[in-house]
Amino acid sequence: MSTTVHLTKEVYRYQLNIRHLLSSARGAAPDQEIVYRDKVRYTYRELTTRINRLGGALSSLGVKTGDTVSVLDYDSHRYLECYFSIPMMGAVLFTVNWRLSPEQIEYTINHSEASVVIVHEDFMPLLQPMRDRLKNVRKVVLITEDSVRPMTGAGIDGEYEDLLSKASPLYEFPEVPEDTKATTFYTTGTTGLPKGVVFTHRQLVLHTMSIGIMLGCHETPMRFSSIDVYMPITPMFHVHAWGFPYLATMMGVKQVYPGKYEPEMLLKLILGEKVTISHCVPTILQMLVESPVAKKIDLTSWKVIIGGARLSRGLARSALDLGIQVMAGYGMSETCPVISVANLKPHMLSWDNEKKSEVIIRTGLPIPLVQVEIADSEGTFLPHDGESTGEIVIRSPWATEGYFKDPERSKELWRDGWLHTGDVAHIDTQGYIQITDRLKDVIKTGGEWISSLDLENTMSMHEAVSEAAAIGVPDPKWGERPMMLVTLKPEFIGDGVNEEVLRSFMKKCALDGRIPRYGIPDSYEIVDSIPKTSVGKIDKKALRKKYQHENPAYASK
């Protein structure tokens, strides 16, 4: 018997389009609030109207289907409007990483073929010197923070709020096919120029729904539901702020946008707006938990997902001690980005904090629709036994299909039908992934591999350590030996914590079996700060460059 379904011309082929994420909120929570710092407060009804006005304003500037519109702004309600309006026009939203060097910003704007730039006034000094070299940019829209001011700068084609005020609130967005390119973002690696990743409407919708299922349908202390208040502390230029603004909007929850990251403002918003869920890199959480104010206020309603770098056991414990629920998440720019989160399973919910912290710092469980395997150098999949270690390879319906205008590196990214992450990990019998290092960050000493992440995690358990970074430095006998760089918590600076204290701690950890004895770092340096990349990760490239020459610790070897 034939099972073929014959569709008539009248059947509507539903498209997975970003506009449907917005329409869900419009019906479920029209009067819910969206807040920007202590400056702006409006409802989802007004959000929809402003999204329509932005579409009309950009259309009046000549933006059409297929054009790329670049945005340089802090985390704001305006950025949220751009997240929707620009792709809903059939145009491409390019979220510019304004922390890159001026040369890299110029390269990415040109490479993306952006025709319009929406820029906050704070970034105009960055944009102006390169304006004449931006080959495709036809229009520049200025964002002024406090009031609409007359246009005095050459080459400015309008002010954001002024353009919205003049545009129609009834602008009609076109029907956009789900495979239409919606967003682009540039990721930086250790070598070469920034690489452009591209995502379609379909990919963004599926990614949004999948993280919603993982965080909303499981019994977990980190559940994200309609009664939560959401505030990102991950820059909105970085892979759609991990996709959470799309999810928060679809759910119709109260959203709070902090603008420029300032500890006092962040804490003020968390308390004043009763923020319950955020996400950030470890550096931001470290800054907040070490703030003297944090120890005087109640943060027990706050949940934080940590990504971008490993959540250390020490930082997790510090957060839990303040009553903050935390867990790790994992992803890449190339994967939209979420691949996994360290949700607790039901039988773990009754565990004490010390035992829970062993799980919440893991790389996590794959979210729905993500396939994850670990492969050896020959591409053979390895068992999920918690011991066999190889490269993480993934498949998901939202992984980028390749790098924009870069077929060679696209081919390197995708091999044998799997996206190769460059991360080394194992998967245990419970299904939890645990990254042990980046392929390029593994320390190779005398034929043995040492995980820099394991060393950092162990060092973070010392009560005086705020942050730790482990790198391999040249050694004439062993090829490489681990070196540890450490920053101290403010209350321990000048309190007698020195290299010998840190070395003794790591030796004890080796005796306790936490790290191999050959993994005890030979050299320790207490520093004021550890360099970070533009998205808040420890910059191992910069550290290796600084310490790659002969180290005094090895001069006599």
Overview of this protein structure:
With 557 residues, the protein is α/β, with parallel strands linked by helices. Among the domains are: 18-199, ANL, N-terminal domain (Rossmann fold, 3-Layer(aba) Sandwich), CATH 3.40.50.12780; 443-554, GMP Synthetase, Chain A, domain 3. The protein is 28% helix and 24% strand. The protein has 16 helices and 26 strands. The strands form six sheets. A seven-stranded mixed beta sheet has the order 7-6-5-3-4-8-9, sandwiched between helices. A hairpin with a 7-residue loop joins strand 8 (181-187) and strand 9 (195-200). Helix 1 packs parallel to helix 8 and helix 11 (313-321) packs across helix 12 (353-360). The radius of gyration is 24 Å and the shape is globular. The protein starts with 17 loop residues before the first helix and ends in a 10-residue tail after the last helix. 47% of the residues are buried. Residues 552-557 have low confidence and may be disordered.
